[in-house]
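As practice, study what follows.
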Amino acid sequence: MSLFKAMGSAILCAAALLAFPLLASAWPKAVNTQVEKKSIDLYDPATVDGKTLKPGKYELLIDGNKVSFERDGQTVVTATCDWKTMPNKSEYNSATFSSKRVLQEIEFEGSKQALEVM
C-alpha cells in the first residue's frame, strides 16, 4: 500500500510541475506605468484629434496608448497613440502629416520606435 501512496505522490508532483508553467503564463504581466517624455517642434499648424496646434515646441507625455501635447505647461490636446517599430533608427526628429496637415506619425532621433497618432 505504501508503494501506491508513493506513486500517487509522484504523479501529483509531476502534474503540479506540468501545470506550473500554464499558471505562470496566465499571471498578469507587469505593465510599464512610467510616463515617457519627448518633445517636438512644429513649424506649421497641425491638427491632432480635431484640435489645431499652432507652430512651436511641444512636450509630449506618452502614457500607454495616450499622448498629451503640452505647451507652456498646459495640456493642449490628448490623443490615442501606438508605438510602431521601424527597420532602422531615425536620424532626427520628424513628423508625418496627411494632405490636410493632420499629424499621423512622429519619429524620434536615435530610436527605432515611431509614435503613430490616431
Observations:
- The chain has a mean pLDDT of 84.
- The two ends are 68 Å apart (CA to CA).
